[in-house]
Design goal:
Helix content: 10-25%
Strand order of the largest sheet: 4-3-2-1-5
Largest sheet: 5 strands, antiparallel
Distance between the termini: 13 Å
Shape: globular
Number of helices: 1
Radius of gyration: 10 Å
Structural class: mainly beta
Strand content: 35-45%
Number of domains: 1
Length: 58
């Protein structure tokens, strides 16, 4: 999967706020993403992130 900083990705499950798109704000061993709906920031391991992403939107 090819994603960079500020990429917008779509996840398989929706966030409780109703949005399923997230903006990548940090890349390393862990990936930090921000919900585009409510602004919530979540940090996931690279393995979990790649498993949960459906597609890259932008």
């Amino acid at each position: 999967m090819d994603y960079d900083l500020n990429s917008v990705v779509q996840t398989k499950k929706k966030h409780p706020c109703g949005s399923d798109t997230w903006k990548v704000i940090r890349i390393g061993m862990d990936i930090k993403i921000q919900c585009t709906g409510c602004g919530r920031i979540v940090m996931l391991s690279r393995e979990k992130f790649e498993k949960r992403v459906k597609k890259i939107v932008e």
